[in-house]
Design brief:
3-stranded mixed sheet, 85 residues, two-stranded antiparallel sheet, 45% helix
């Protein structure tokens, strides 16, 4: 089910529309009659990242924690940030 509301109405009654979204209603917000946003309930069983993406993120974090060798000088992310100031 879908409801269409103006920005003004959504702003004045946001709590009400969020309750409707929790019940499964899709809310489309309009500005001057044109749709600009959609409020949808979050589906909990769908992970935000795939297993491969989670593994890649973890490898990247490990690499960042080890730091990078730059011309014989060992540097990590925090050092590079401090030198840039």
């Amino acid at each position: 089910m879908q409801e269409i509301v103006s920005i003004r109405d959504a702003n004045q009654h946001l709590s009400h529309y969020l309750e409707r979204v929790e019940q499964g209603t899709e809310i489309v917000i309009t500005r001057r009659g044109k749709p600009i946003a959609r409020l949808l309930p979050i589906v909990e069983d769908k992970p935000l990242l795939t297993d491969a993406q989670c593994a890649a993120r973890e490898r990247l974090r490990e690499r960042m924690n080890r730091g990078y060798a730059l011309g014989g000088m060992r540097s990590d992310r925090d050092d590079l940030h401090e030198r840039g100031q």
